[in-house]
Specification:
Layout lengths: L1 H9 L21 H6 L11 E6 L2 H12 L3 H13 L1 H4 L8 E4 L4 H7 L3 H13 L8 E3 L11 H7 L4 E3 L9 E9 L3 H12 L4 E9 L2 H4 L2 H14 L1
Parallel strand pairs: 1-6, 2-5, 5-6
Antiparallel strand pairs: 3-4
Length: 233
């Protein structure tokens, strides 16, 4: 307890979005202003792809701090938020047999050090007692960054990018795909098509955020800014 108190004084907990120091004894990882700025998605017209938050400045910066500033613990918190609200977002009449995170190519995962979708999925499965499968679906082609492409290019970029390693692991199952950002749905659809072709019964998706195509293209700018900020410290 004493050591924690000393460390908190030297390295005070900061908001995972804006990086402001959090209030003393504050147990949330988003500061009050950022937390109050989160905007929930309207999933009322959705049948297959569901998202928790609108991709506004707060959630966008939180995701990029998580992914590009090597903060996997931020992902555990964000995944717990997805779990907290899953019963409000996902349909109640469907039983999920298996949760599968959208896979990264092995080269990309080595570069980043982790798969952000897997961290989110693990937090969700732990909290909701769901089965997690991180090996059923593999990304076999190291595709270009989706954020740099238009709608048509995104679909073309993902052709043949995913493979089901063991069809028996997905056959007849209702599967929930997990990702951090849903934009055009091209990645989700490429995974869904492969899983259904291998016998999956139903494939839904649950993303932390939903971003319009143009908003998602700001990711490159934010990534560059984060690198600049890191080097300047």
């Amino acid at each position: 307890m004493l050591l924690d108190s000393v460390l908190n004084r030297i390295f005070p907990p900061r908001c995972i979005s804006c990086a402001d120091v959090l209030p003393v004894n504050y147990l949330w990882q988003l500061c009050p202003p950022c937390d109050s700025s989160l905007e929930r998605c309207d999933n009322s017209g959705t049948s297959l792809n569901f998202s928790l938050y609108i991709y506004n400045d707060v959630i966008r910066q939180a995701i990029h701090n998580f992914k590009y500033n090597s903060r996997p613990k931020h992902g555990v918190f964000l995944g717990s938020l997805m779990a907290d609200h899953a019963s409000e977002v996902l349909p109640h009449n469907i039983t999920i047999d298996t949760v599968i995170p959208i896979p990264l190519h092995k080269a990309k995962q080595r570069e980043r050090g982790f798969n952000q979708a897997e961290i989110l999925a693990r937090a969700i499965c732990t909290q909701l007692n769901l089965d997690l499968d991180i090996s059923a679906l593999e990304r076999t082609r190291n595709t270009s960054r989706q954020a740099d492409l238009n709608l048509v290019e995104r679909a073309e970029n993902l052709k043949g990018a995913f493979t089901v390693q063991d069809p028996s692991a997905v056959s007849g199952k209702s599967i929930l795909l997990i990702d951090d950002i849903l934009t055009t749905g091209s990645t989700i659809q490429a995974c869904r098509a492969e899983l259904l072709a291998c016998g999956a019964n139903r494939v839904l998706s649950y993303s932390l955020s939903h971003a319009p195509l143009e908003s998602s293209r700001n990711t490159s700018k934010i990534h560059k800014n984060n690198i600049h900020d890191t080097l300047a410290r």
